[in-house]
Specification:
This protein has about 130 residues and is mainly α. It has a single domain, classed as lambda repressor-like DNA-binding domains (434 Repressor (Amino-terminal Domain)), CATH 1.10.260.40. It has six helices and two strands, in the order αααααββα. Strands 1-2 form a two-stranded antiparallel sheet. A hairpin with a 2-residue loop joins β1 and β2. α2 crosses α3. It is elongated. It starts with a helix and ends with a helix.
Length: about 130
């Protein structure tokens, strides 16, 4: 099960790094930023630590609060940034490719986990 979660943990770390980099670059405290986006500081900390997941609504608030310096798409889909050549030159086909690759990766992980679980059950009878 842990192996199944590793890609999602990595994505959460990339998302939190984007927010932390922004806060540091702009000289904004977590307390001030959490107030600006309308959440408790503890929730922001939980997001940055990967204990809470990013919602599309919160991602939109963060994008507005950062005046577009943090893109909501990058918070919800952290790997999307790698699909873009730069902020002003987006490849319209890259997003579809990105989604297909993500779905394929998840499908493969689930298939592998299912096979291991089935093998374990057949071997141990439980």
């Amino acid at each position: 099960m842990i192996k199944l979660l590793i890609p999602f943990i990595k994505k959460g770390l990339r998302m939190s790094q984007k927010i932390n980099d922004y806060l540091e670059r702009e000289g904004i405290t977590k307390t001030a930023f959490s107030k600006k986006i309308g959440i408790r500081k503890q929730r922001l900390n939980d997001l940055l630590l990967g204990k809470k997941t990013m919602t599309p609504d919160l991602a939109e608030k963060i994008e507005k609060a950062s005046k577009g310096k943090i893109k909501k798409e990058h918070l919800v889909f952290p790997d999307l940034a790698s699909c873009e050549k730069n902020e002003s030159d987006r490849d319209p086909f890259a997003f579809n490719t990105f989604i297909k690759e993500e779905v394929s990766e998840i499908r493969k992980m689930l298939t592998d986990q299912h096979s291991k679980l089935t093998e374990h059950i057949l071997k141990n009878g439980k």
